[in-house]
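Lesson 9: reading folded outputs for more than one chain in a single document. The general rule is that every protein is listed as its sequence immediately followed by its structure tokens, and records are never interleaved. Here is the first one.
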Amino acid sequence: EHLKDLGYDIGYTTVCNQINRKLSSRKEAFIRQLYSPGEVCEFDWGEVKLEIGGSLQTLYMAVFTPAMSNYRYAILFHRQNTESFLQAHVLFFEHVGGVFHTMVYDNMRVAIRRFVGPSEKEPTEALLKLSTYYQFHFRFCNVARGNEKGHVERSVEFVRRKAFSGNDRYPSVEAANVWLEGTCNRLNTRFNRDNQGKRSIDLLEVEKKRLAPVPPPFDCAHIEQCRADKYSVITYGTNRYSVPDHLVGRIVDIKVYPEQLHCYHDNRKVCQHERHYTRQGWYINLDHYLYTLRRKPGALAGSQVLASAPQEVKCVFSQYFKHTPKDFIELLIFLQEHGYDFDKVNEAIDRLLRSSPHDISVDKIKVLCMQKNEVYTPVVNYDDQILQQSRAQLEELSLLLNY
């Protein structure tokens, strides 16, 4: 419209075509880089949608690609957060048996705390601690410049397609990670034209000679504090986790890992739980409530504690102790004090069912649990003739020696 106001007889399409010619007249060129063994490794995240245990979930794939060997290492996490970022590095360094001299990241929140200027970035405290512990340098790509870490950019898409394009259903995240590990192993053992026809796994062996030694694993947990409520549970991430019932009203320190929660009180570890990413869930350990249940045995039958117990525990209670919950609690205390698994109870009940199926009692189960498998040495019946000859030889030796 402005050109027309100036008196030019021109259309919109002509202007667009001219602009496109100007923009496309000179495309950007890139300079191919050469890398020394053990010098540079690139890291990035990739989003993966999988059906886990029958429900669709969004998981996050951490991918490492050494620039020289083009080796691929990937692992799935529930969240793209700091503890997952740290845990991924710990597992990768242990996997390759060393530490690369420089790690390359894009502008991810878990690595960059804030932008200081047009090109300056301030790293997060977690990245500073990690790099100090493992003694590696790091650098960040410029904004919208994924080509500056092109190896891992391609690896995220490549590994995701190879691993999950034909199979996106798994019973658990652990099973999906096993499948992902197998996929990476297959990719790393192929002859790769990008590596001048060499296998990535062979080139990694060359890189390993230049890697810095890997120290003991970095503790990637962060600490939270929670107070145990009247139900002897702590709340983390909207989910409730049980702690031993003597901690009701006390402050519990939680070391939060990507897949686990470790609970401490007075610098002593009191329990640990698998970390869950559901909402409003209750995750209860029956052993945490034995002291309270000993005083209130009638509360067991309809409790959240029993509902959360393993199926085998609920079956034994309903079949043999439904009307005598106090005996069942005494049995559980006995197992806890002696360090026995519940399998001992099942084995004892199986033996009782074969001998006296109508008399299943706590005392008998305890006795059978404490029995040890005795090893009997069979009595060997020697041949009489051999025994007589042996005695005769001993008598001859006695005469020769004047005994």
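And here is the second record, again sequence then tokens.
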Amino acid sequence: ASATGCAAYQAYQGHKGATVTISSGLTGTEAERFEASVAEFESCTGINVEHAGTTELRSQLLNGSGANLSTSAGASPSSQDNPENLPDLAIVPQPAMVAELVDTGVVHPLPNSVNSNVEAGWDRHWIQVGIHASVPYGAPLMASVKSLVWYSPDAFKKAGYEVPDTWAELEALTNKVRADHPDGSVTPWCVGAADGESTGWVLTDWLEDALLSTQGPGVYETWASHRVPVDSSNAVEALTAVNSLVLDDGHVAGGRGSVISRTPVQAGADLTKGSCLMLHASSSFESRFPEGTVITDADGANPVTVQTPRPTASATAGATASSKGTTAPAGTKVSAFLTPAADRGSDSVLVGTDYLVAFTRSDAVTAVMEYLTSHEWARTRAALGGVATANQGVDPDLAPSDVGRRATRLLQSRQTTVEMDASDSMPVSVGSSAMWLGLSRWSTGAMTPKEALKQAESAWPKQK
């Protein structure tokens, strides 16, 4: 970087030669873009940021903490005092995982300077998720809108389909696509829920978005905060609605039995091939479409092409044999519409967030944390594409794609009712374990909606 370019990094100087390690769940294009977002920082400060992306982040961090993996409690004193088995920092995809790690005793509170950066950029409801026992431990970094359905504007136009404005219209569109293709050559929905130790999160996203869309934020918040059981009648009703919308015969590519054997990446490839016409996935999914996919607006205009990641270790860590080398058919365009609600005027969206936590203390680690929580980093990362942010210091127009710009505007707007992903915030034994497993069994037809949700409810930690 030029001397002029390095002026922006003056506050982070004085740590040349230091190495700071970061673990995350970022792989593929997401890993490549994260690494690109810190490249100039490294060049200007002399701090080497070593990023390692993995699909088994939780087990690696808990093993490194010395915690009992079955209870995630009670890290050994040696782990707390001698954290060589842990990275300096981690980017954690679920608030409940932040809480779980804090409970092991290995997470350091955020430095005051980092907390100040967070408070300058993010509204309170984002910040409080990283606070435990009144102490800030997790700093929000990136965010996504999960209430989205990806589709091909060209395919819709060719078939005469219109983007639905209500849940009833979404049901009608689903039935029409099925009726128009009685041989099953094209199905309404693409679904892939296989994702290593995280298999099932695609299905919890479906449940949560359906509950929010069909029954509104009041019912959703009551369920998300466990003021009613996980298997409440409202939740069972929402999962039953997903069952009939997505998993009925002829509704999903490969049939319902294939849902937990296909990956999200394969589902994205199915959409670009035209074998299915809609994919429920977050705004950040644009990074997971095959190389050559063109992200557009609803009119098929303002194109941005998905690029393949460079072959760095983290970028290739998540590339399975099924996704390596996958490219989209030439000129394949995709866009996304908001999951329609029962109420046409609803402004509620389901969201997800990544949080930065620290396992070690040093001036170099603090410098990296200060940069990653700054407006400057948020702008740099937004401009690289594939993410949205609720950081108020970022101009939404920095996002290269129309979907990214719309998602960022929604996240930043005080008119939007932002609802945190409930399963991400539930105790890990529930939201990231029993519910994933129960919904995976439901997806194959082995469990009813009630049975799957009852399994999650029974895993809720009992009050001592």
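What the second record shows: The chain has 20 helices and 14 strands.
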